[in-house]
Structures are given as structure tokens and as C-alpha cells.
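Example record

One chain of 641 residues, shown exactly as stored in the release files.
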Amino acid sequence: MRDGFIKVAAVTPEICVADVDGNVNRIKENMSLADSENVKLMVFPELCITGYSCGDLFYQRTLLEKAMSGLKSIANESAKYDAVFVVGLPLSHGGKLYNVAAVVSHGEVLGLVPKTYLPNYNEFYEARRFTPAPKDKVLLDTSLNEHDMCIFGTDIIFTCDAIPEFSFAIEICEDLWTPCPPSVRHCINGANIIVNLSASNELVGKNSYRRELVTTQSARLYCGYIYASAGEGESTQDVVYSGHNMIAENGIMLNESALYRPGYIVSEIDVQAIEAKRRNMTTYDVPELHSNYIRQTFSLNMSETKVTRFVDKAPFVPSNQTILRRRCEEILDIQSVGLKKRLAHTHCKTAVVGISGGLDSTLALLVTTRAFDMLGLDRRGIIAVTMPGFGTTDRTYNNAIDMIDRLGVTLREISIKDAVLQHFTDIGQDPEVHDVTYENGQARERTQILMDIANKENGMVIGTGDMSELALGWATYNGDHMSMYGVNCSVPKTLVRYLVSYYANFQADETLREVLLDVLDTPVSPELLPPKDGQIAQKTEDLVGPYELHDFFLYHMMRYGSNPSKIYRLALIAFENDYDRETVLKWLKTFYRRFFSQQFKRSCLPDGPKVGTVSLSPRGDLRMPSDALADIWLKQIDTLS
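Predicted C-alpha cells for this chain:
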């Protein structure tokens, strides 16, 4: 359970209707998964001890008494395992019959949670037999536990004493399908995981809707959601059940069973990530839903949880190609509309963009042309300035010229060599010394040219730098760091590549596509050092590390507030086939060192559109002091290996 990962399972045993002994035995067989899979929370379907489809047999005392003895047997079995189990059964109490979920662990029944909403429409007749959950919580005098008393009610949150973030509450089947599911109240009062014991029959299209319900509820409540549904054994008379099991977290489906396949699914829910999201949401509270919940504590041993869930090495980039194309179009629209508004507000008819032939400036130019098209402005009002310097190669120069020509914007070519050499003379810099002054002097000269052209043409300088560069401080202060509107400021480097690729493949004509594809194939470089044999000599990722690693670090640090040890652990899983441990650790340390030391650059960024959930704007998402120390983060990294 280290780093907040809780191994959970949703199980559909092979149930026989009214065969309590057989059902209990099959439930017990599945409980052994707690050992073999290291599962800490296991959820079974609704009324699984008796079967959901018993109909009027639920009125029979024989069945009800057998169900209670079956629950006691399951509770006794739970003493063998270091886990919590949730099973369903009918319960007679106070002259009424309830559809309940029983929570058992270490030989004890921790609580009995009745179903709130009883469907009594179409093929469902639950209100014929069962009573909705009462409002009050009571202690039942039962023979289930050694002390005979057991809590009964809906407002119960079951919490692990070793990991308080591991807390769950229960709703049962129809509860989720209602306008105001109990899970809303449960989560507002502190539950991080919702378990749902279900007997949802199958109809055409219903599985898709059920999936949407589970993922959407986990997204809006920032919670884990475990859904365990009845299988084929319940398929009697007029309805069929498919055993549709799901495990979701924060809107993401972690695992899902195939229909009509009895068995189980397993995954890990990250309760630390859930807590982090909620801490960040100042509106995550509904005071009128606060209730006097019972906190029922259970004990588990702190054990290692092997992470088997998918860890995306490119979290900013959707893996589904259809979603990726749609996302690219959305981002280009956000960037273009943001720039369109700024141009219209300032009455600018001219935009100035520095074009290097690299990815970032290419994306900025594409966005600018879209904004001009939206405004109905002539693209000739876009002044694309290429500024060859000491490190410019023929490849990037030619790509810049060709791109400008094929987009129909205005070209200006201004060499910076003479101006920079004069500047070096003025400040006493030896041009043979290729240090930071040598590099930054070129970057600032380029920015000065762009700013002055914008003044001269009554225009606006469009910034090209991306979010990954800002995270690392890989920008020259008051050089490429500065602009009048930075269209790429919240687009990570890994996503820039896909945006340009999307434009090349779906929006560009054949001649422009050819240029864009070559830009995509060009190594990332500021081109501030002289070429070697005509080729780029300065490759950014050789100096600061792979951007795919840094974007991964940035995402998990900013989105979930994860500590370095957890990020390192996840990175080793995500990049298992790409980087060894030493490489990941080296660049993780570089990331934290640079992220903290370079905040002063981010504290004075120009405006730019936010396009995703992670942004480094000092006016929006990151209010970070420029002089904060990174010591506690770096010391934690030093303990890793």
C-alpha cells in the first residue's frame, strides 16, 4: 500500500439461485485471491449469498436464516486473510426486509449497509419485498460477532487505521442510477472509494451506459469506484446478467471485465492521487450534505503493492488516435481563439513571429495563421522573421523559408551575426568562448529584433516557447522567454510534436506537409553553437534530458502533488523498456533542481492560453515563490536507487 496504491478486486462468482451453501463456498474460493493477488479490498455482487433472483423466496425464513449463517461463515473465513470483503445478502430487521451489503474483515462483520433506492419498474420488483434504507443508524443485536452487536445504516465510512486515505463507502446497484446517488454524500463526508454491489441485467446498449455512469461518477466525485455485478447464474426466466465488473478512478477506467465471463478483475486505486485532487478543488464541499457519519475502522498490515495498472509514459498525449486527433483540434482552437481575442482587443493587424525551423516556432506560426483566418485578416500581415546565427544549419534555415512561403505569410530574413559580434565587442566577450553569454547574447538579439519590428509595424510579438521549457527554465531570460502573447505556454513538448503532426496530416496541403514532416524529424535544438560538419551540434535533450521524462515528472508533480519517490517508481514502470534506473534518477534530480531554481523566469511570463489541466502561469495555476528551496525534494531523491 506504499504511495497510496490499494489493490482492489471486483468478483463475479458462479452463483446458483437459493443455493446458499454452494454460493458461500464459491465466495470463499474467490476470497483466497486476497493472498495470491495481494488484494486489500474485494467486492462481490448484490445479494450474492442467496442470489439476486430469488423472487418471493426472500419471504422464506429458511432462506433468510441460511443467509445469515452463510455470512457468519464468510466472516470466519475472512480471518485467514489480511483484507476487507464486501458481500450482499437479504437481512430481516424490525419486521422489515433489507437488501444489504456486509463488510467483513479479520473474522468480524464491520457493518451492514442497506440499499437506499429500490427499483420497482419494468423488470424490477424490489419494492415488493425489500424496504428502503432507514435514515438512522442502529446497532443490531446479532450473533454475527463475538460481541453480538453490528452497525446497520447507510452513513458509514470504513477506514483503514494504517492508511486513513484508504476509506470507502457503499452504494448498491440502483443507488448509482438515481438523480442523487448516495455516493455523492459519501464522498463529501470523506469516502475516497465507492464500492457498488450490483445485479444489473443486460439489455442492448446498457453496458455502454453503465460504463459511462461508473466513469463519470468517479470523475465528478474524484474517487475510486469498484463495481461488481451479478453474472450468468442469475439469468433466470426473463432477464440475463453479464457479470460486468469495473474499476475506475477519477474518470479513468482502470480495468473492466468482458461480458458473460465469470471471474474477477484486479487493479490498484491511488488514494493519494484522489486526496490530492480534492485538496486542489476548493469547491469540493457541499455543507448541506454533511452528515453524522460513523467511522468504522479496520486494520490491515502495511504491505508492498505491486502496481499492475497501466502507467502512461505520455500522460499529456491521448493514446487513442481518434481522441488524440480531436484533442489536437481542440488545443489548436484554444490557442487560436486566445490569440484572436488579443489581436482584436489591441487592434493589431500585424503579428511578428520568429521562425527557426524548429517545432515550437512552427506551431506558433500555424496557430497565428489560424487566428488571422478567423479574423478575416490577410496572412501577409504575419511577419515571419528568420534570423540566422552562428548555429543555424541549412536544414532548419531551408525549412523555415519553405514553411513561410507555403503558408503565404511575409518573410523577413535578418542575420544576427554582425550585431551579436558588435555586442560581444562592446561587452568584452571573446566570440571563441562558447559559454552562456555567447548563447544568450544571440537569443536576446533575436528578441530585440522581433520587439522592434513589432513596434515599427504596430504589431505584436507571438511567443513560441513551450511549457516543458518553462518548467526547466530552458529559456533565455528576457530573450525567447519574453513576448507579447505566448501561444505555446501551456503546451508540453511531447504534445507540441503531435500538434504539428496533426496539422501536417490533416490540415496541410502536400507541399506544406513535406516541410512539416521534416521539421518533425529534426532534433530539438536552440542552434546557438556552431554546427559540426553542417549538422546540428547542440541537442537540447543531451543537455537537459529527454522531454518525455520531464513531461512525465511535471504531470505527476503538478497534477497530483506526488513526491519524488512516487514519481520515480511510476517512471520506472512507464519507461521500463526505454531507460535504466540510473538514467531516470539522474534526470529526475535535474528536473527538481531546475524547476525550483528557475521559478523566477515563470514569475514574469507574458499572457498565454491555458489548454490543459497543468499550467505554469503565475496568474493562474502556479503561485510559487521564486526563492523556495528544493532541499527536501532533492534529499528524498538522494535516498532513491
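Notes: The chain has two domains: 2-298, 321-638.
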